[in-house]
Amino acid sequence: MALNYLYPSDQAISEALWFSLPDVVASVILTGKIPQIVDAFKLVPRGKLAGLKSTRLGGEVGVNPLTQDLFRTVIEQRKSLSKRKDLAPAEVNRLDKSLKVLANATSYGILAEMNRQETEKRTKVWCHGLDREPYRCSVIHPEQPGEFCFPPLASLITGAARLMLALLEHCVTQRGGTYAMEDTDSMAIVSTKKGGLVSCPGGNFLSGDGEQAVKALSWEQVHQIVRKFEALNPYRRDIIPGSVLKIEDDNYDPKTGKQRQLHCYAISAKRYALFLWPKKGEPALLREKVNNKKDRWSRHGLGHLLNPTDPEASDRDWTAAVWEMIIRKGCGLKTTALRFAHLPAIGRTTVSSPFLMKSFEL
Fold it and tell me: What secondary structure letter does DSSP report for 305?
């Protein structure tokens, strides 16, 4: 997740770049600078498809496209599944997954669907880009748009998601805070129970000991930000009450229910680990064993490698051992060599097309 600085040439308006309106708004919020708008267009729906009729999604969830918003209805019905007593747990789980896929695919996926064509020869295609008129070019592996592909509308979906994150970032930085990481739909805000400076290399502040530090928000300040986003909740409040932001359950002790302090060791985007550090103990990776949730450390940078001790095994606990060593070393604690450090790193490549097969020819 990155919002990179990008500037068109100042020499010619013809080199201006297209952005979705939510992205423009996000830029103004985060930079305070007003861009020069040289051209704009608006998408306006016209008419309704003939023959629209009610249907039952998954045979259970009714929706009428003439009177209901499909996407809002799908999300509301998915959130209501836990209250249904007429369905077996297995059926609830099946419907939950199918409605999630349906919402993601139909609200964005089909609008951005491009199907790569496997060819070995260059093919002439029409290219639609920043120029006012399309032009012909020669490419390998041309992409065919899906049946409902419409990139301008798809860009508004992702642009709106980035705007939501920009609003959240603004709320955090406005209070002098920062964040450890963020992704397409989440942000790990640096916070402690009472707030204040936290030692962190590269921070903009200096602690009382003269160490570089960042400012942590208090837990109450984070809760205030969450409550502020309640105004953006588009769903029926009797079904999905509260804010569109959620403070993850990881922040609370599973036994006492009280909020607890989490720690984060971040190397780069998508390479991080969350861990606990008891007052009289050593750092321990945050593990979630309830509801089959994932462990709270990323496998980005390690996910392409097989288990070094048993390449045929699906066990990924060896990545936890790597993170434990990294965290201990970063915290200045004693470390021991990994038992598999002397073994070669092995990955597996799937040959899914004749074109890839050629890479292995002698």
Answer: B
